[in-house]
Amino acid sequence: MLRLEKIGVDQLRIGMFVSELDRPWLGTPFLLQGFEITTEDEISQLRDLCSHVFIDITQPAKPYAKMPSSSPRRSNRRDKRTELLRGRAPTRYVDQKTLYNELPAAQEALQTLGETVRNLFQVRRADTTINVAEVKAAVEPMVNSIRRNPDACIWLSRLRQQDDYTYQHSVACSVWSVALGRQLSLPQEDLNSLALGGLLLDIGKLNLDPELFLRPDQLTPEEWVVMQTHVGLGIAALEGTGVNRDVLDMIQHHHERFDGSGYPSRLKGDEIPVFGRIAAVIDTFDAMTSQRVYARAISPSEAIHKLNKYRDTTLQAEIVDEFIQAIGVYPAGTIVELSSGEIAVVVAEGRVRRLRPTVTVLLDADKLPVDKPYVIDLRERLNDGHGKPLDIKTSLPSDAYGIDIADLTI
């Protein structure tokens, strides 16, 4: 079982596993939240930043060879991360509830949000003015749920029934945006903006011919030009509604790319507002993990791998890194094979031990359904029934062994 001990930074030594700091991780040079100290440089960095830390005393300190300092690179990463918070006071979030205790509230919040989105889509198809106050009220319970514990909303957002892609994409992008904002230590008002912006990213598509989105084959150049107009249509739909600049930035710039290859304005780097860069990451991730008529859904872990390939090309590296921290190396909904041979689905990431999430076992080592699915917290369960180390062997495709996570309950 995970056991944390508070120690002064002068007591740190190589081989210790640092689980928590005395400050938010944002603005520090450490990419992983929860890491094993392997260099003297990491100890120096921790002493510069903190007065105390929390170490996992179930992980015995291991000896490591002294490695060269990497301060300039780490400092550069820290500076870029800090830029994301420029002009905003960081807010420290801690889990107030467990995944299971938060599930009922999260379910109610997403149901309310879903009903509001359906009504919103009907309004826009009728070309009626959007009631922004109503939408803001609908996102608030979801934002509050993610503030308490993001795992519940993240898990529920993965349980997609066959439904209208634009609807599902809107709700999921709202959830991903808030989860990322929480990870970035953004204040409550920014979480609300992220929720609203994520929800309305593709609102302009409702003014286009639905047949355009049901085509299984590639769009013609003329159709692609029409498709791109959904950005401007979305901005036009919000004229006079009083939404703030951050929300508009998300809608206007979620298809811009960090290397200048996006649309509509081919902006690059810092020319793209921060909220637009955030929107680009969450929109890309959700599109890849969604079933569309022209592309199959890939697993969340596959999508994470692809996001890593896009770092500092089409997407900003620091935002990609923070998003991965927010949802985990094995995000909720990832189907995995354990070292025991059992097949499981990840239901919650481990914010302290990133490679040891909570999973629900569905198939035994012979790949046959278990009598009753059961939950394993890999942070606490270190060995299998034979005394051998238990961990994740590999992630699997989203349709592995005919599993449909929409049928699962936890």
From TrEMBL:
<feature type="domain" description="HD-GYP">
    <location>
        <begin position="144"/>
        <end position="339"/>
    </location>
</feature>
<dbReference type="GO" id="GO:0008081">
    <property type="term" value="F:phosphoric diester hydrolase activity"/>
</dbReference>
<dbReference type="Pfam" id="PF13487">
    <property type="entry name" value="HD_5"/>
</dbReference>
<dbReference type="Pfam" id="PF11871">
    <property type="entry name" value="DUF3391"/>
</dbReference>
<dbReference type="InterPro" id="IPR021812">
    <property type="entry name" value="DUF3391"/>
</dbReference>
<dbReference type="InterPro" id="IPR037522">
    <property type="entry name" value="HD_GYP_dom"/>
</dbReference>
<feature type="region of interest" description="Disordered">
    <location>
        <begin position="63"/>
        <end position="84"/>
    </location>
</feature>
<protein>
    <submittedName>
        <fullName>HD-GYP domain protein</fullName>
    </submittedName>
</protein>
<dbReference type="InterPro" id="IPR003607">
    <property type="entry name" value="HD/PDEase_dom"/>
</dbReference>
